[in-house]
Design a protein that fits this description.
Elements: H1 2-6, H2 10-27, H3 29-33, H4 36-63, H5 68-100, H6 122-128, H7 134-140, H8 143-160, H9 165-186, H10 189-245, H11 252-261, E1 282-284, E2 291-293
Antiparallel strand pairs: 1-2
Amino acid sequence: MLSALRRISMPWMLVMAAAAGIALGFAAPEVGRQLTPVSDVFLRLIRAIIAPLLFSVLVRAVAGAGEARNLGRIGVRAIIVFEVLTTIALLLGWLAGVWWRPGEGVALPLEAVVPAAAPVAFVTVLTNAFPTSIFDAMARGDVLQIVVFSLLFGFAALKVGEKARPLLSFVEALAEISFRFTRIVMLLAPAAIFAAMASAIGGGGLNALSGLARFAGVAWAGQAFFLIVVLGGALMSWAAWVLFRHRTTVNPYAGVAHLVQGGPFGFRHFGFRHFGFRHFGFRHSHDGTRSSCSRAVATTGGSAA
């Protein structure tokens, strides 16, 4: 029984848990409403790991940049990519909400209605981005303050140099522990989904189910569009730019293979070592002037290292 459960992937387990929660919410609404603490515990654990995960990953990335000059180039490119993609994602979310109106027809209880917040000046927002204490920011879960402190702390560690090596070892270990902690918490995801769906259906009935289904459909459609069109288009544009820079014959398949396996901007620089593009039969010449498609020359799992 346990071996059969281990063979089920996590997405399918989540779908099965959601279906079971919906069934329980319809069959026993009182029991479903009592399962709310299960989903609350899961969300609390997820929120608890955000601060150490952000701190360790950002400090390790900044302090491990090697030189401040490299950090400046990486930082500018990262900020540009982040701002552009975030703006597009926000616009897609706004357009999807305006067009499909997923929350229309969902009746909320009076206590769930939150009054509109007062406008905040830009100077106040800028000031509040800098924490008075990192421990206070972590306790409150203020992500912006944690990010700002982590970036400044990592830059200071970068300027210190070799003396900060013990700190880098610590944050690397903290990052590994945080990722392991997240994997352990995600084992509770099916139970949390089951409890959340049972509680929502037990409290709101069919109206809650239709509202959730409409919202989930719109959210998934928007995410799929962003993943395929925006991120996919950005990746293909990047591949085309690499091909143009190296004066390579424009073959999109060989271009992507070159991008992943060997180019100066290839994924090997980001630590991805198991993209077996040779298995698909794409071979790129070393001089960067010719691309050809041949039969498969290696088994799956070819290393790009």
